[in-house]
Design brief:
By secondary structure, this protein is of the alpha/beta class. The protein is 31% helix and 24% strand. A hairpin with a 5-residue loop joins strand 10 and strand 11. Helix 3 runs parallel beside helix 4 and helix 4 crosses helix 5.
Length: 360
């Protein structure tokens, strides 16, 4: 069987370097093997059951999902321990959650007593107990409740709900992740983790057992992963990294690129490729050309990447292939149907991104 060089892959193509991904997998697994805290990786980044299984095989206690649809895909692929780090609201979604709980061990976040009652009613009707954790706002000002009397009353309400099982707490210190100075990142993350652990302590003082205290992400894995009281960390982007994360955490390699083709060179110094906004996300900036200092990205339109040559010696020609590092891995991956998984310079497999677009 003919080996396919990666430059023979049709473009635009999302290319996953297996050697680098496996290095990232081992780096994170090694860190958590030395901690009392566990890894519960977030699959909203890679959205691929094959990678999720690799993470579990490497020691993760389960996975984290952002959306119910992602959790359904992962459960159908045989992943059993799933935390949905989000609220599941509405009759249709709650019915799907009940169905999911019949085939996997699922935990879902809550921050509203009305939602608690709806979930409990659904559990009772189905003859099951749904596992829930309370989300705490640790400073991000997104979802979650504050630490105080509301927390105690909500935990007690969950424990008294016949269709629910109270598992614990979660919080996400996302506001700390991109603090440019590590000392400030560590300080902000530590304050957030302290808030979350104080919520645990408040419940324990009320004789309410707390099994799960889940926190963290790739940008704060070191801080959450070594914080006494936190049980697991929801890191996700580490598995492939990207331009922004790599600048903060160089221990994780950029394993993900978009392969594109030069399709036009009609103006001096102009390099036009076939990969634009439908192949890259730009919320964190433009992609970066891999391995070439003589080409600089300028902008993206829907179907085109617009770059320029730098210096007089650039030899780029029509039909040449370029690889681009993505600026934000999570949103870029969601634009593609599959990974072209390469080892060295050759295609080894195509892995479907089965949870792509599962936003419901």
């Amino acid at each position: 069987m003919k080996r396919i060089h990666k430059h023979e892959i049709d473009t635009p193509a999302l290319v996953l370097d297996l050697d680098l991904m496996e290095k990232n997998l081992a780096t994170m697994a090694s860190f958590f093997s030395k901690q009392d805290t566990d890894l519960r990786p977030h699959v909203k980044t890679h959205k691929c059951p094959i990678i999720a299984h690799k993470q579990v095989d490497a020691g993760a206690i389960g996975i984290t999902c952002a959306k119910l649809g992602e959790a359904e895909v992962m459960a159908q692929a045989g992943i059993q321990n799933i935390l949905i780090a989000n609220q599941v609201i509405g009759e249709n979604k709650i019915a799907r959650l009940v169905s999911l709980a019949r085939i996997a061990e699922v935990v879902v976040a809550v921050d509203d007593l009305g939602n608690v009652r709806q979930l409990s009613d659904a559990g009772v009707s189905a003859g099951i107990k749904l596992n829930v954790i309370i989300e705490i706002d640790v400073g991000m000002k997104r979802c979650g409740i504050s630490v105080g009397p509301q927390l105690i009353s909500m935990a007690k309400a969950i424990r008294q709900s016949p269709g629910l099982c109270f598992k614990g707490l979660m919080g996400y210190e996302g506001h700390a992740v991109f603090q440019p100075e590590e000392s400030e990142r560590k300080r902000v993350a530590a304050a957030a983790n302290k808030t979350l652990v104080s919520a645990r302590d408040m419940l324990i003082a009320e004789s309410i057992p707390v099994e799960i205290v889940s926190a963290g992400g790739t940008g704060t894995y070191k801080y959450a992963g070594t914080c006494p009281g936190i049980t697991d960390v929801q890191a996700g982007s580490y598995i492939v990294s990207d331009v922004r994360y790599h600048s903060l955490l160089p221990e994780f390699e950029q394993a993900l690129t978009v392969l594109c083709t030069v399709i036009s060179r009609t103006r001096p110094n102009a390099v036009i490729t076939d990969a634009g906004l439908k192949a890259f996300s730009t919320g964190w900036g433009l992609p970066a050309v891999k391995g070439r200092d003589d080409i600089e990205m300028l902008r993206l339109s829907e179907e085109h990447g617009i770059a320029k040559t730098v210096g007089p010696t650039c030899d780029i020609r029509l039909g040449d292939k370029l690889e681009m590092y993505v600026s934000h891995c999570c949103t870029a991956i969601n634009l593609h149907d599959r990974y072209y998984a390469v080892r060295g310079d050759y295609l080894e497999a195509e892995w479907p991104i089965l949870a792509r677009g599962k936003g419901q």
